[in-house]
């Protein structure tokens, strides 16, 4: 089993190395067309991995499917493992879309140039993979030792669904975030962006000038005033720190959601990884359009409510829906998401120009 984990992690690192080192080596503004193309590639890769899951679990490749699934007590064969992987992938992918709202707000607040956003998202996603890997390992250990933790996860998902429905957008100020305040307290911050750099050293060649898109170089008062040799974070680093923090918060919601479907660590981890890998491209594809899907948050809340209810009443789901209840859960999640998109297109939000003056 260790070999299958090592092979998958090496595969992910290889794909990420190709992404940053070959296909996106130079900073550039990602067009919608390019983003849609890469989104299609990542989605195709995630869906095609279902075939590997099916054959791997059907033939117990390197130990796959040898252990009992801690959530439903079944030994996964090819069919059940593939359904659970697909369900987990769709749930995690749909929940990651909500992250796009926050990322767009963060980039706007920190005024991150479009050509540098790709770099922030790349390293943010790399950190997210490491964090989620640790959280998945911890979650699997908790479920193995304390099965009642599933009930806690289910209640947490229901609470998150309700909060998602009632919480208003645009009320939070990233500048007042405790993580940003602590970072500013312990690390000096440059006034301007310095190209793709997350930190600069005061007094080094060119450190007093900030690189901006267009090839211009502007003086940076904060760097000029700093003691030579001082390591200073740039606003790009602050944006990265907030993206990582945001994903950690979202992971607290999404990780329990996948454990509502399966307790198999490999299925949980792989579905999470493929959902996150495509987040960067999905952001550039949907960031400008996401506001048009006004009922998307309602759909996501309904998905969380559904999987949370399943986690709280697993026996009821199995008795009511029969042995294929995970397949019905997958169809239910897809139906909710489709209804949210259709409703958003059929009932678009009114333009702000028609709003009453205050």
Descriptive tags:
single chain; 358 residues; mainly alpha; 2 domains; two-stranded antiparallel sheet; two-stranded antiparallel ribbon; disordered C terminus
What do you see in this structure?
- The chain is mostly helical and 358 residues long.
- It folds into two domains: 26-166 and 255-347, no CATH class; 190-232, no CATH class.
- It is built from 13 helices and four strands.
- A two-stranded antiparallel sheet has the order 1-4.
- Helix 2 (32-58) runs antiparallel to helix 10, helix 3 runs parallel beside helix 9 and helix 5 (149-166) packs across helix 8.
- The longest helix is centred in the N-terminal third of the chain and has 32 residues, at 78-109.
- It is globular.
- Mean pLDDT is 80; it is low at 353-358.
